[in-house]
Design goal:
By secondary structure, this protein is mainly alpha-helical. It is built from 13 helices and no strands.
Length: 254
């Protein structure tokens, strides 16, 4: 996690989806605990996630299910989470009200502009498999984590929800799905803790995963994915190209 390129490359972009990604991780952490107080804390974080990146809202339904399942189907805990989530989300509406005179108007305008008028599509439309092509190693880690489904499902279901929503959106950027990376590296760590033990049935697979992780990280620091970006005559295009690349050497060049 400390050297995972997608996490580090996007972390320096102070944008709503990056902050929402960190906050979603905290929401899942509290959801996995079993007290009512942690359910309320998870709901509070979920409200902030929705306010920062409304596209992550379907993943928040998964978090609500985790709260429900981890607390022996206690609807009171879910209600507490929803109440605290409504409080934190309402803060964003109050900011809109104070700034523009109408609560939640920025969300309404965003939906109008991007869905009704298709403004986001003017920045380019990508195929459904775009995120698989950009993050093939991370997707592989998520699939391997599914081999330990009873323990990793809590982390993988929010990842699936985020990817499903963003796959249906025409314009795609790597930073939009930033939230999947923290959950993915946490998910793969769960089975690796068991598989790397001596005598474990999948120890060879675990060692291969560790080796591949080191190689993939090293490649990101040593080999840019788009070296031709440095040779483009138009400086602005070169900068734009470097900013779009999800490797650390591109960040250094930028």
């Amino acid at each position: 996690a400390a050297i995972y390129p997608p996490l580090l490359f996007a972390a320096q972009k102070i944008t709503p989806e990056i902050l929402a990604g960190y906050t979603l991780s905290v929401a899942v952490l509290f959801a996995l605990r079993t007290s009512r107080g942690s359910a309320a804390a998870s709901g509070l974080m979920c409200g902030f996630v929705a306010g920062l990146r409304i596209h992550y809202a379907p993943a928040l339904l998964v978090v609500a299910w985790i709260i429900y399942a981890r607390r022996q189907r206690d609807w009171t805990s879910v209600g507490s989470a929803v109440a605290f989530g409504a409080v934190s989300f309402s803060l964003f509406g109050m900011v809109d009200w104070w700034t523009w005179g109408t609560p939640f108007v920025s969300y309404v305008r965003a939906i109008e502009v991007n869905i009704l008028y298709g403004v986001a599509a003017r920045f380019g439309e990508m195929p459904p498999y775009f995120y698989i092509g950009v993050f093939p190693f991370g997707m592989s880690l998520a699939l391997i984590s599914a081999l330990d489904w009873p323990r990793t499902r809590w982390l993988l279901l929010p990842v699936a929800a985020i990817l499903l929503v963003h796959t249906m959106i025409g314009h795609k950027e790597p930073r939009f799905v930033f939230a999947i990376h923290v959950l993915t590296v946490t998910a793969i760590a769960v089975p690796l803790g068991e598989w790397t033990r001596k005598g474990a049935e999948r120890r060879l697979l675990a060692l291969a995963i560790c080796l591949c992780s080191v190689v993939v990280c090293a490649k990101s620091y040593l080999m840019p994915s788009r070296p031709e970006a440095l040779l483009i005559a138009d400086y602005r295009l070169a900068i734009a190209d470097l900013r779009a690349q999800p490797d650390m050497l591109a960040l250094a060049a930028y």
